[in-house]
Design a protein that fits this description.
three-stranded mixed β-sheet; 3 strands
Length: 316
């Protein structure tokens, strides 16, 4: 076992990436560079606008700023390395680099999950309990929700990385993925991985499935409130907003659950790569559009950010 570990530590992993075809590398590079830049600009502008505008200090914007920041970091953990590997022939990554990438990927992914649940709860309180909104979603409560999200995510990630660091990789070191992820690495290991898979299905379910169920419950309650709205146009706008939120949430959680909550023996590299692209690149790019760029307060804050003027009153 020690010899195998020593061998693993000295032998770098080879990330095979999205494709092995040389002709597809440059088109994929251009595509994902555009998606990455769009995601970085979108999320970065949202964070800057919320921090700069005195009108965007409501709880929903406080949570949104943290979601955008987490998304910005989340995509930056994997996409730059993927883009570099599409241009160069050296696709190697050390074991330490692999575990570091995995640590921040899991930490930021779980942070996203928890923040999406917090935002759904915020909308539930705003719609179902408007008279108690200020007390239930005070700055103290919001700070506690955000702090818990970041703390839980890093504890979760640390636990997984400590277990992954104990594995031996005595077979092939070619990873059929564009970054170091659980399932493809577990398939390369010659150690007993049952304890890690058990952790994924138990503790992992707590930080992924439970927030997803909370989001569904929150939007279910919101739907009941929407039906009771007296205005048909108000119902239509609310349904449109909730529908777009749920579509992105379903894309994020659906692909995450499809990739991680299955036995390693049933994992298929090609399907896993496609699903992973959805929640590592696509949803972080869509979040600014779905949650904020259609909001008139945010649009006004962005205009003020570019023009240098101040906004003192909200008109939404």
């Amino acid at each position: 076992m020690d010899a195998a570990n020593d061998s693993s530590e000295g032998t770098p992993f080879i990330l095979l990436g999205l494709t092995t075809s040389p002709g597809q590398r440059r088109p994929l590079f251009v595509l994902f560079l555009v998606l990455y830049v769009a995601g970085i600009l979108g999320n970065g502008l949202i964070v800057a606008a919320i921090r700069a505008s005195p009108t965007l200090h409501a709880p929903m914007y406080f949570l949104l700023a943290h979601l955008s920041f987490a998304d910005l970091c989340f995509t930056s953990v994997t996409v730059p390395k993927m883009l570099a590997n599409l241009l160069v022939n050296d696709r190697s990554i050390s074991l330490a680099g692999c575990l570091t990438q995995m640590y921040f990927f899991f930490a930021l992914g779980v942070t996203d999950s928890c923040l999406l649940a917090a935002m759904a709860y915020d909308r539930y309180v705003a719609i179902r309990h408007p008279l108690h909104y200020a007390s239930r979603m005070s700055r103290t409560v919001c700070t506690a929700l955000v702090g818990t999200a970041w703390l839980v995510s890093h504890v979760h990630s640390l636990l997984h990385i400590l277990l992954m660091a104990r594995l031996s990789f005595c077979a092939s070191h070619k990873v059929p993925h564009f970054f170091c992820d659980h399932q493809p690495l577990l398939r390369l290991s010659c150690s007993d991985t049952r304890h890690i898979q058990l952790l994924i299905f138990t503790e992992g379910a707590a930080v992924v499935v439970m927030p997803f169920l909370l989001i569904l419950a929150s939007y279910g309650a919101i739907s009941v409130a929407i039906i009771r709205l007296p205005s048909a146009s108000g119902r239509l706008r609310a349904v449109s907003t909730c529908g777009s939120h749920l579509s992105v949430v379903s894309l994020f959680y659906g692909t995450v659950i499809a990739v991680y909550f299955q036995p390693t023996s049933r994992y298929e590299a090609e399907r896993g790569r496609v699903a992973t692209v959805m929640y590592t690149v696509v949803t972080p790019m869509l979040n600014p559009v779905i949650y904020s760029l259609r909001n008139r307060d945010v649009q006004g804050a962005l205009r003020a950010l570019f023009t240098g003027r101040r906004i003192s009153v909200s008109h939404s």
